[in-house]
Design a protein that fits this description.
It comes from Planococcus glaciei. The active site is at 6 (nucleophile), 8 (proton donor). It is built from 9 helices and 6 strands. The protein has helices spanning 14-26, 32-36, 51-60, 62-67, 76-85, 101-111, 129-136, 146-149, 178-189; strands spanning 2-5, 89-94, 120-122, 140-143, 158-162, 174-175. The protein is globular. The protein is of the alpha/beta class. The protein has a 6-stranded parallel β-sheet with strand order 3-2-1-4-5-6, with helices on both faces. Helix 8 (146-149) links the parallel strand 4 (140-143) and strand 5. The protein has 2 domains: 2-12 and 72-189, Rossmann fold; 14-67. It binds magnesium ion.
């Protein structure tokens, strides 16, 4: 089977990592409850930043976010390793800027993710992911962003949403813990 994964906030906990980093950089403590109550992907409003300031802040710390020690969600590496061992094809489809493609692949490999270079796509807008996903004829696709999953017509493709505070309105199968999915997929594949 062919499995497609978004990376940020699907396989790795990037937003919360950014939230912690912003607190250190800006010297401001913000309660984690406020983070968990956000109903949009962007986090800058918690720090009193405008959209423009937030975007500048995000871009100024991008390398630190992407290539240091952002936590991987528990069970994600193990699940993808297992799928890879069993002969399934794993694709990564990320809207990270194209110039971050090579370093992102390297970082993912260091975390233990099975990465085949020819099955890695990056640098597209959220709305363009749909074309790549359709062309790849995936069996499963996982993402956290409503703007992405809303564009996918389901057909044979099984779309699942990684649970986040900003996507609770999305009515799709929902992944809270990767370890749970392992069981669900194994059952379906048998
Ligand atoms: Mg994402």
């Amino acid at each position: 089977m062919r499995f497609g994964f978004d990376i940020d906030d699907t396989l790795i906990n990037l937003r919360e990592y950014a939230f912690q980093l912003y607190q250190r950089k800006l010297g401001r403590e913000v309660a984690i409850d406020l983070f968990h109550a956000l109903n949009r992907v962007e986090i800058h409003e918690l720090f009193g930043l405008s959209d423009k300031e937030g975007s500048d802040m995000w871009n100024s710390v991008l390398d630190e976010l992407y290539y240091t020690d952002c936590p991987v969600y528990p069970g994600a590496v193990e699940l993808l390793q297992q799928l890879d061992r069993e002969g399934h094809e794993i694709f990564y489809i990320t809207a990270r800027p194209a110039e971050h493609g090579e370093n992102t692949k390297t970082w993912l490999k260091h975390q233990g993710f099975p990465v085949h270079n020819e099955r890695f796509y990056c640098g597209m807008k959220d709305a363009e992911k749909v074309h790549i996903i359709e062309d790849l004829q995936l069996d499963y696709y996982f993402d956290d962003k409503p703007a992405v999953v809303d564009t996918l017509s389901h057909g044979l493709l099984k779309v699942m949403v990684k649970d986040q505070s900003y996507n609770r309105h999305v009515e799709l199968p929902r992944i809270k813990q990767w370890a749970d999915l392992q069981e669900l997929i194994q059952k379906e594949l048998k």
